[in-house]
């Protein structure tokens, strides 16, 4: 069973700072690094490192060819990564000593995906295939509609959560993966408590599974009457940048391999815990053998 990630490819410019910059403040950085990133690319790498059969679709500019080569080296099929004359998308990321981050995104080539691109890519997939989406590329409504029409199983991580998401054709989504802030916005509720968010999302999307990520409090999965809570692992946090992407990739890879939701969540939690002990985005995503070694 294959999974297509239709999503962003970014160059991450990461700055270590004493604290996240406040409005009007000029703050020196103690260290600068460049990493491959973008939520789409990160999730593709996580899926590949977890052992899934992954295809990535998206667009890059001329200076982003190394991003395509980097995910291809992980075993990701990059046939549908196109080259554009716009700059490659990038992110400016601040990371403080506690590992918390603040991210400024520039969409660049990620925002040149057209409905024709969506039709061409999705014509190579169909019923039985999975599609994983985020919200860092253009033509999302067209992608969602066509994937649903083709009978694909759609997982949607609406990050960054923007007002436009509420108007997307979301009735074909099979699994929503959200944090509390994203979940409350998607459910249109001011109460961001886990149970309230889950119940509100289930009321709006009764046929979908809901996976609510809770940071240090773990995660909550819900489908129908089923509830599965998974605790987070206690580790020394260095950088949380790709923790959510790692969690999603490992969770879906295990599901596609036929494992139960509970086992999939447990592995995803271990993977995310190992991820936050390292700096960077895609570079911090652990490989499967590392997770197995850490649990033995």
TrEMBL record:
Pathway assigned to this chain's UniProt record: Carbohydrate metabolism; D-ribose degradation; D-ribose 5-phosphate from beta-D-ribopyranose: step 2/2
Keyword Metal-binding included in the entry's annotation: yes
GO molecular function per UniProt: ATP binding; metal ion binding; ribokinase activity
Record's keyword annotation contains Cell membrane: no
Chain residues that bind substrate: 10-12, 38-42, 136, 245
Co-factor binding comment: Requires a divalent cation, most likely magnesium in vivo, as an electrophilic catalyst to aid phosphoryl group transfer. It is the chelate of the metal and the nucleotide that is the actual substrate.
Family annotation (InterPro entries): PfkB_dom (IPR011611), Ribo/fructo_kinase (IPR002139), Ribokinase (IPR011877), Ribokinase-like (IPR029056)
Reactions this protein catalyses: D-ribose + ATP = D-ribose 5-phosphate + ADP + H(+)
GO cellular component: cytoplasm
Carbohydrate kinase PfkB domain: residues covered: 2-286
Cofactor names: Mg(2+)
A single BP term in Gene Ontology: D-ribose catabolic process
E.C. number: 2.7.1.15
UniProt subcellular location: Cytoplasm
Keywords: ATP-binding, Carbohydrate metabolism, Cytoplasm, Kinase, Magnesium, Metal-binding, Nucleotide-binding, Potassium, Transferase
Binding-site list for K(+): 239, 241, 275, 278, 280, 284
Regulation: Activated by a monovalent cation that binds near, but not in, the active site. The most likely occupant of the site in vivo is potassium. Ion binding induces a conformational change that may alter substrate affinity.
Function, in words: Catalyzes the phosphorylation of ribose at O-5 in a reaction requiring ATP and magnesium. The resulting D-ribose-5-phosphate can then be used either for sythesis of nucleotides, histidine, and tryptophan, or as a component of the pentose phosphate pathway.
Subunit: Homodimer.
Entry similarity comment: Belongs to the carbohydrate kinase PfkB family. Ribokinase subfamily.
Protein's name in the database: Ribokinase
Gene: rbsK
